[in-house]
Amino acid sequence: MLSPDGGQTVDILIENGRIVSIGPALSNDALYPEFDATGCWVGPGFVDIHTHLREPGHEYKEDIKSGSQAAALGGYTAVVAMPNTMPAIDSGHIARLVAARGREVGLIEVQPAGAVTLGRQGNELAHLDELWEAGSRIFTDDGDPVADSGLMRQALEYIGDLGGVVSQHCEDKGLSRGGHMHEGSVSSLLGIRGIPPASEDIVVARDIALSEMTDRPVHFQHLSSARSVELIADARLRGVPVTAEVTPHHLMFTDKEIEAGTDPAFKMHPPLRTESDRQGLIEGLRHGVIDVVATDHAPHVTADKEVPFEEAANGVIGLETAAAVVNTVLQPDAAEFFSWMSTGPAGIARMANHGRYPTHGELANLVVFDPNARWIPGTYASKSTNSPYTGLTLTGKVRLTVSMGRTTSSEGQLT
Amino acid sequence: MRHLLSTEHMTATELTWILNMADEMAEVLERPIPKVPTLRGKTVGLLFFENSTRTRLSFERAAKALSADTMTFGSQGSSMTKGESLRDTALTLEALGADLMVVRHHAVGAAHRISEWVDVPVINAGDGTNQHPTQALLDVLTLRKRFGKLDGLTVAIVGDIRHSRVARSNVFAMTALGADVTLVAPPTLLPPTLDEWPVRVAHHIDDVIESTDVLYLLRIQAERGGDQVVPSLPEYVSRFGLTDERYARMSGDSVVLHPGPMNRGVEIAHGVAEADRSLVLSQVRNGVAVRMAVMMTLAGADRD
């Protein structure tokens, strides 16, 4: 079990969902069902601050129930639902609907991210106070950047004052326009129009300047470029309040995957980049420049991917594989792992009830993760199957998830 | 060889095999009855998701000269406009009895994707800005007929290389056979990275006009990309156009190729298209022979 003091081998007694005892060799007088977690890590349930649950509006791809199930299987106890739904989560009633539907399903806490601008159109601020009241703590137009610098400044000042954080999708559309993959040797050979890393770097650099000017936090989503990591490292040295996330797929793959067969399973935004970018992201995560891993779980139905690369939808699912991919690629120690997967993201999303080490007297919110188990993803609880990991051998498996006192998944099955 | 999707990894041996067979097919086409029974009873599915008259006619003519039946799918007015997926269309053509598929599509990798879904050989007849391997084969056939071999030839490909599947296919086919290829274009019309391209680069047609054996001209593909790639057409002509004056400076045996359609007055001066050095119509003729050779090679290949 992981605690602030480090790891220890203990028994945990849970009664009516509450942790009533932690210690070596506890007796089980009441004969509660036992779960043998020998060799596993026990830590706080994972928190994903970047999930597309697709409800309302695109329930044929995913809905809050199927997305919650995928999250529970993946070891998550909370997710932040991205607001690029139809309609967008840009006002209080839609945010309340998403949160309430999450509670109704009851597998995870669903915190609705609020849009920064009305309809995510980038023109005027969304109903930020309403969204805050409805529980939004992360604000983003994800899928699109807040492109206008003046509007971004207003958003930072207003949202920062509320206590929230603006989470930016970093893309200069003048550079990314019409692009489908990383601009480089692979795109040049294929003839597919590319998106240069500068498309991301420019927005990261601009928002560092705005964060510094306003002294308000900016969170950078799904980093793909090594240069962005350098910019953020430099900003943090100067005390600029910026944070960043990286996705499992950017940690694992490069644009070489596309060269082999233009398989749309590897099409995502931002695109997979080069090996040196990938190494930059890995080093950024290891050294704390990148704070957290976020899935950017983006379900798309098969028909959206059974087309040529340039016509395919962007994105991959990731909730059910994220922990395993991170463990496979980085082989972290338990403290790093839970910092990236749980405590870090819970902090950014201001989730008081998540990212807490198992503590005597509290509702159990935990995950049992076997860092040595090998498995091959093949089927998913998500409604969509657009996973680049299908058929790959991953190391590390979620064995048990207990969310808000309730066992939500055990040994790969929903409970 | 199971499919013909790209020239990028083709060897000189594979290319030469097809070229030799194409020479034989060219003889067939000279006969009074230009037809052989090789593919009698076979059906060639022509899947043209992108409009093309020249390439479709050439493949049709090739299939018929091999006594195959053809079945043409055009995207206009078909179920593609009703939202049918690429996979469904390909599986439908296969179920209808296509023994071989010729795929033309506006998106990169379309033929490759189809080859993963169907059990019959697939010929890429142009996929977006990626590859157009039969065009390259007919070009190298044209040059081999004229010069005897590609080895040692200097080739300058001039124009919109960034958006050209013809250039991508030709660079690899020509260099695999020993030609020395130079790309001539402004940076805005070159691929962003040329790291893995076995080529040289020049930024003015006058750098190559007097020395090159082969001048391969491409048109500017205004329909792709949507960027402003050159300040204006007259400026493009001044640096990259084959004008009458430049034509007069070309060396002894040198030739001019163009995959068509030509924009006369832009990359090629009006009269030059039909001048002595122009092999444009030979290219078209050789296209039929090359496509016959490719279909024979693939249809006769073992099914694995």
Count the domains of chain B: 2
Which structural class do you get from the secondary structure elements of chain B?
alpha/beta
What is the name of the CATH architecture of chain A?
Alpha-Beta Barrel
- Percent of residues of chain B in helical segments? 25-40%
Class by alpha and beta content of chain A: alpha/beta
Order of strands in the sheet with the most strands of chain A?
5-16-17-18-19
Shape of chain A: globular
Tell me the major beta sheet of chain A.
Answer: 5 strands, antiparallel
Number of helices of chain B: 9
Helices and strands of chain B, in N-to-C order? Answer: HEHEHEHEHEHEEEHHEH
Mean pLDDT level of chain B: 93
Describe this protein's structure.
The complex is a heterodimer of chains A (415) and B (304). Chain A has 415 residues and is of the alpha/beta class. Chain A has a single domain (44-356, 372-395), classed as Alpha-Beta Barrel (TIM Barrel), CATH 3.20.20. Chain A has 13 helices and 19 strands. Chain A has helices at 64-73, 92-105, 128-133, 149-162, 173-176, 185-190, 198-214, 226-237, 248-252, 256-261, 275-286, 322-330, 334-348; strands at residues 2-3, 6-7, 11-15, 18-23, 41-44, 46-51, 76-81, 109-112, 138-139, 165-168, 181-182, 194-195, 218-220, 242-246, 292-293, 366-375, 394-403, 406-410, 413-414. In chain A, the strands form six sheets. In chain A, strands 5-16-17-18-19 form a five-stranded antiparallel beta sheet, with helices on one face. Chain A has a five-stranded parallel beta sheet with strand order 9-10-13-14-15. Chain B has helices at 12-30, 54-65, 86-95, 110-117, 133-147, 165-176, 233-240, 244-248, 280-299; strands at residues 43-48, 69-74, 100-105, 122-127, 154-158, 180-184, 200-202, 214-217, 255-257. In chain B, α6 (165-176) links the parallel β5 (154-158) and β6. With 304 residues, chain B is α/β, with parallel strands linked by helices. Chain B has two domains: 12-131 and 285-299, 3-Layer(aba) Sandwich (Rossmann fold); 133-283, Rossmann fold (3-Layer(aba) Sandwich), CATH 3.40.50. Classes of the chains: A alpha/beta (415), B alpha/beta (304). At the A-B interface, α6 of A face α4 of B.
